[in-house]
Design a protein that fits this description.
9 helices; eight-stranded antiparallel sheet; two-stranded antiparallel sheet; alpha+beta
């Protein structure tokens, strides 16, 4: 064989990523992931194999994983239009569903040392919890927020709670309109851990209602959360310690809250997180597989 007819060593691998390759057959990929129940760890590994697989995962597979793991939540966020695009992409939603972003010190929330992020096996997201994080004049917005992920912190009696959430239709939301009308500046040092976009501090915007602390089982003034320009929420709080197993969940009317902070609200329901409203429009999202 002459030199210009020799097969290059990597020609097989190049051909395997051609447009006609069965390896990138999307139907086969869907059947495969359905068979393994949309295992999160496997999808992460597959999307790292090549640029083409990463593109297929970003366009199709992450969407299907979200639909499989959180069908009601996804249907609500998309108004039932599952074939459309969700904000900046389905991969950002998948990360938000299954990843606790950890915490670092900010202007309004101080830590001795940063807390690293980690994958979670299961998280409960709720529209009722989300409503507690909305200012009074923004209560018509729809926001999902998860129960806080609890972390022990050395030399502290309080646990650190880290939570996250997502708006439906944030570009048309009253919350975004209020932030823009108040000319709240975007933060210089903080970025969204789920899409990398710039964020507003709801604390600096004075848009943290008292009901947020009540919902978390925290002290007013001991929490902070951010909302990015794409509608992802992330935040941290110090969780009030439970004095006994007899702590009760007190009823309250969220509509009585004014914007800003009030006093201490030591109210808890499920663990620490307050679930006083019966049916809370929530859904437990389970990662499945062996991720931790």
């Amino acid at each position: 064989m002459i030199a210009n007819q020799r097969v290059k060593p990597n020609s097989y691998y190049e051909s395997s990523e051609s447009a006609d390759s069965g390896i990138i057959n999307e139907g086969l990929l869907l059947l495969l992931f359905e068979y393994i129940a949309w295992d999160l760890q496997t999808l992460c590994q597959v999307s790292a194999v090549s640029k083409k697989l990463r593109a297929v995962a970003k366009r199709l597979l992450w969407r299907e994983l979200c639909v499989h793991r959180a069908p009601r939540m996804v249907a609500t966020l998309t108004d039932g239009g599952l074939n459309g695009r969700l904000g900046v992409g389905w991969n950002a939603l998948a990360k938000l569903l299954f990843y606790c972003c950890g915490c670092e010190s900010t202007q309004n929330f101080k830590l001795d040392r940063p807390l690293s992020g980690h994958h979670v096996k299961a998280t409960r997201f709720s529209k009722t919890s989300g409503r507690s994080f909305l200012a009074k004049n923004c209560r018509n917005d729809l926001l999902y927020v998860c129960d806080p992920c609890e972390h022990r912190v050395a030399d502290r009696e309080d646990d650190l709670g880290v939570y996250r959430g997502i708006f439906r239709g944030f570009m048309k939301s009253r919350t975004r309109e209020c932030l823009i009308r108040r000319q709240v500046p975007l933060e210089e040092q903080v970025r969204c851990p789920y899409c990398g976009a710039r964020v507003w501090s709801m604390t600096n915007a004075r848009l943290v209602p008292q009901s947020a602390a009540r919902r978390l089982g925290s002290h007013d003034g001991r929490l902070e959360y951010f909302v990015c320009v794409n509608g992802h929420l992330h935040g941290s709080c110090w969780l009030a310690p439970l004095s006994s197993d007899e702590d009760l969940c007190h009823d309250y009317d969220e509509d009585e809250d004014d914007d800003g902070y009030g006093g201490l609200h030591g109210v808890v329901g499920n663990g620490r997180t307050m679930n006083c409203s019966g049916s809370s429009g929530g859904e437990e999202v389970v990662a499945g597989g062996s991720d931790g």
